[in-house]
Amino acid sequence: MTGPSEPSTPPQGSTDLVDKGLAAGKVGTFAGAVLGISCVAPGYTLTASIGLIVAAVGLKMPAIFIAGFIPMFLTAYAYRELNSRAPDCGASFTWSTKAFGPYVGWMCGWGMVLATIIVLSNLAAIAVEFFYLFIARVFNAPDVADLADNKAVNILTTLAFIALATFISGRGITTSERVQYILVGFQMIVLVAFAIAAIVESVNGNAPAGLHFSLEWFNPFTGMAIGAFVIGVTGSIFAFWGWDTCLTLGEESKDPTKVPGRAGLLCVISILLTYLLVAVAVMMYAGVGTTGIGLGNEEISENVFGALAYPVLGSWAGPLLFLAILASSAASLQTTFLPAARTMLAMGAYGAFPKKLASVHPRFLVPTYSTVVAGAITGIFYTAVSLLSEHTLLDTIAALGIMICWYYGITAFACVWFFRKELFSSARNVVFKFLFPLLGGIMLTAVFVISVRESMDPDNGSGASIFGIGLVFYMGFGLLALGLVLMFVMRALSPDFFAGRTLRRDTPALVDESSLIQK
């Protein structure tokens, strides 16, 4: 994305969408899926979420991954249908505004930006942990690994990683397809090799737990209390977060109306298969016990792969898993700036955020200013949470689930309302514009409500609390509530957006489908 781009022409029915100056025609279906997988970062995500999920549901981890996948899969169709009619880098913000008006749209965009900030802080923290772990193992210096547990060193190193990723992202390198092919390919190959090795060791009787594979692990209807199920699903939803990055690249795709939706579906299905393979492998090998390398051991819950790498892969290949997680975190740290910066860019372009955020670098054709702002806020957020909680990752993952359910759910319902006048004009519309998005939205709303309630109990997070209320509640619902205050501040500063003058609620796309090219 280093050359000039031709202004993009919005499809009929979306004439109020504006060209942001991004480079058009650069991303294909496979490249979009790779960028989505890079943003999801399966290596980083698994090592950060396995402990949380196992602590909640034990051997039901595969069932929980499937339960988290279902609303993601259904919502992916909502994204696909909305993007086919109104491709815009604002994605959820833009579509929810056009469906429900500026106030709902602003809060949806706010939730999306918050989710990204939380993920960026997690990514940097995991990258730092595996950075020191990799150095310690390669140079046989165990004390180096302990540097990640030193709060001051951890915060400073994490800020350095965030600053480096911000600099690189602001220069457009995050969309370099060749770099992402290498990083994503490397981590996926290592993860699959690790899973196969763990299964082989278990089958041969050389694993500590040596559990036999059971289809019961995939059954979500037995052996789980509702509270445990919701906590597990929240962790699972976090594990799939990032696939919608494909949809924020609509204005930069080769076919804006088709490529992003296809890339999103390819991404989310690939991630599910990877998660199920790894989940089964680590359970068969390590079990879910609370001692040793058992997945339920709190001492390894924030870094499961750190404990399993050498036992499964041996001394010669173990460091490869550390390197894969480091590469996964570093690559995702860059690509995760894509949805954050582009959502802020769109909100700035339509007047929902300060106009300065709508600026695009004339050479690199990326929203550099928005990227820098996202990086600065991420650094401040991580520092604050680290000083408040000893288990930063656990709390931020739980809070992230609240954010994801919020803006994904709004987007799913937005699809139903946006297409309300044509929902029953064909069987295809009934399924993809009505049934799938509606079910996905209902599921996400249910998880959101229960998650907010559960987050108030400190015991459902790391135990950290403020005035007796869990820190997760403040990071999740509390920050969403803060958005209400900021929204009214922006309304006073930028009334045009809230008056519907920059992005209209209704467009001819709701009623005039005959002139659109059919898929």
UniProtKB/TrEMBL annotation:
Protein name, per record: APC family permease
Keywords: Cell membrane, Membrane, Transmembrane, Transmembrane helix
Listed InterPro entries: AA/rel_permease1, APC_superfamily
Superkingdom in the source lineage: Bacteria
Subcellular location: Cell membrane
Annotated organism of origin: Gordonia hankookensis
A Pfam family this chain is assigned to: AA_permease_2
Chain segments annotated as transmembrane: 30-57, 63-82, 103-132, 152-169, 181-200, 220-243, 263-288, 308-327, 364-385, 397-419, 431-452, 464-489
Membrane topology field: Multi-pass membrane protein
